[in-house]
Write a structure and sequence with these properties.
The protein is built from 2 helices and 40 strands. The chain is mainly β and 493 residues long. Strands 11, 13, 14, 15 and 17 form a 5-stranded antiparallel β-sheet that branches. Strands 20, 22, 23, 24 and 26 form a 5-stranded antiparallel β-sheet that branches. A 4-stranded antiparallel β-sheet has the order 3-8-5-6, with no helix packed on it. Strand 27 and strand 28 form a beta hairpin. The relative contact order is 0.17.
Length: 493
């Protein structure tokens, strides 16, 4: 009779490696003396999943998809990466064939679907995809950009709205073969917003499908200028983003804020921002007192009259910072006020460029740091079309390497190292030589930091400064896999 040894750390590690990394785990010749001997190894992920929302309901929308995996060490020698229509009859939309050069695809009109995708093997570490839609006229006029996201179970969207003239839809995409069940809760300046008839609860998203939920429909008559929407799953996982249309101003995507934290960085507010509105929320049981600073090219300053922000627990707060950047690109730094306890918060800013009938809006949510490496795809080589903002929020200067990939059609890669002083924001424009088509920008932290980054893409149309801003956060290409503390053997009797 055969008996198997009890499940040990080695078995868990082997299973984890099969899912997230590649390589093998070698058992030591003798058992480790203690648990400290079981150090974690850094290994490349073997599989990455992304979800892209349905881009637009406009018949004149033009959408570009760009996917990219940086070069360098990866999982194995081969791999596949495809974005598919998020339906039961999924059809390929874009396929990436190699590392180091982006692939692109386009779609026209309102029929472009939500997408799901998976990258395996060598293409998985650092795989990124960007969706950019341009709508030249109509209520949804603007450039709407969003990075395709990893499916999850918990999302915060400060900066959403149910006000008259705003149309905010939460796009929920289920990439899996089983149904997902979603709750959407909203919090305004007076606390929780009651959902009409419980319509924000138990929202079913069928397998391999997508659904857009109007925030205004969940609380008819609420008419709140600023709310924080919280999306959670009871079952399954989804990709979630909020599509915003504002009458007379423009349209864009509002991505989820970084996870609640005591200090936040909102990177990449354009130099010519005509209006900057900060929206923040404390989801816990304690109030938060924050210091607000703008990190510009020469240091950090406190906006006059808005040096601090008090957040009551469970209530959304907002502050109009007007044209706070005053001709110099910057990033907002939110930190606990002097002598106050660090309380986890989420935040985003609504940015408007232009004036009168030629306005356009975009959003900058709180971002996670660049970490070891981060990438944003679908950059354009036109003059001033692509601007990268780099911010160091801590007390240590950082050295950062930025690499521009070849274009989807042509171009030679280019790279540059820059030093970003602590408490400042530096901007950079870098494109491949002879670039044609879209290209990717990869940001690597060489030393110091932490570093935060965002990319602004500007595609003007008839005098309207149409733009979109995407944060550039750690691609989590490597994961820690515990080493085996002892051999797992099969005993035979």
């Amino acid at each position: 009779m055969k008996q198997r040894a009890p499940l040990t750390l080695a078995a868990v590690a082997a299973a984890l490696a099969a899912v997230t990394g590649v390589g093998y785990l070698a058992a030591p010749s003798a058992p480790a003396a203690d648990a400290k001997a079981a150090a974690a190894a850094r290994m490349p992920v073997e599989r990455s999943a992304l979800v892209c929302p349905a881009p637009s309901s406009s018949d004149i929308a033009e959408t570009t998809y760009t996917a990219f995996t940086p070069g360098g060490s990866g999982a194995g020698g081969k791999g596949t990466a495809r974005l598919l229509g998020a339906t039961k009859e999924a059809k390929p939309v874009l396929e990436l064939k190699g590392r180091g050069k982006p692939a692109g695809a386009t779609a026209s009109g309102a029929e472009a679907p939500a997408l799901t995708g998976v990258a395996d093997g060598v293409l998985a570490p650092g795989w990124t995809a960007q969706q950019t839609t341009k709508v030249s006229v109509g209520r949804a006029r603007g450039v709407l950009g969003v990075g395709c996201t990893t499916p999850g179970t918990d999302f915060w969207f400060p900066g959403a709205s149910t006000a008259k003239g705003r149309e905010d839809y939460v796009h929920l995409t289920n990439p899996d073969d089983t149904a997902a069940v979603i709750d959407i809760k909203m919090f305004g300046p007076d606390g929780a917003v009651k959902s009409e008839g419980g319509t924000g609860e138990n929202i079913r998203i069928d397998p391999k499908s997508t659904k857009a939920v109007s925030l205004a429909s969940l609380a008819p008559g609420a008419q709140l200028a600023d709310v924080t929407a919280h999306v959670t799953t009871r079952a399954g996982r989804v990709g979630a983003s909020v599509q915003v249309g504002e009458e007379g101003v423009g349209a864009d995507w509002l991505p989820a804020s970084a996870d609640p934290a005591g200090s936040l960085v909102l990177p990449g507010i354009p130099a010519d921002a005509a209006s900057v509105r900060l929206v923040a929320f404390a989801p816990g049981e304690e109030d938060a007192d924050l210091t607000v600073k703008l990190a510009g090219p020469n240091g950090s300053i406190s906006p006059a009259g808005n040096e601090q922000l008090h957040l009551k627990s469970g209530m959304t707060a907002s502050v109009d910072l007007k044209d706070v950047t005053r001709g110099e690109a910057g990033s907002l730094l939110l930190t606990p006020a002097s002598g106050k306890k660090a309380v986890p918060v989420v935040a985003a800013v609504r940015v408007v460029r232009g004036s009168g009938a030629k306005q356009e809006l975009g959003f900058v949510p709180a971002a996670a740091p660049v970490g070891t490496r981060a990438t944003v795809a679908d950059n354009r080589a036109d003059e001033n079309a692509t601007v990268l903002s780099l911010t160091v929020a801590g007390g240590t200067d950082a050295k950062v390497k930025v690499t521009a990939s070849p274009g989807t059609e042509a171009g030679e890669p280019a790279s540059k190292e820059v030093t970003v002083k602590a408490g400042t924001t530096q901007t950079l424009s870098l494109a491949p030589a002879g670039a044609k088509g879209a290209y990717a920008l990869t940001v690597e932290t060489v030393s110091g930091g932490p570093v935060f980054a965002a990319r602004t893409l500007t595609l003007p149309h008839e005098g309207v400064p149409m733009f979109t801003i995407q944060a550039v956060s750690d691609d989590h290409a490597m994961v820690s896999v515990p080493k085996a503390a002892q051999d797992l053997t099969v005993l035979t009797r």
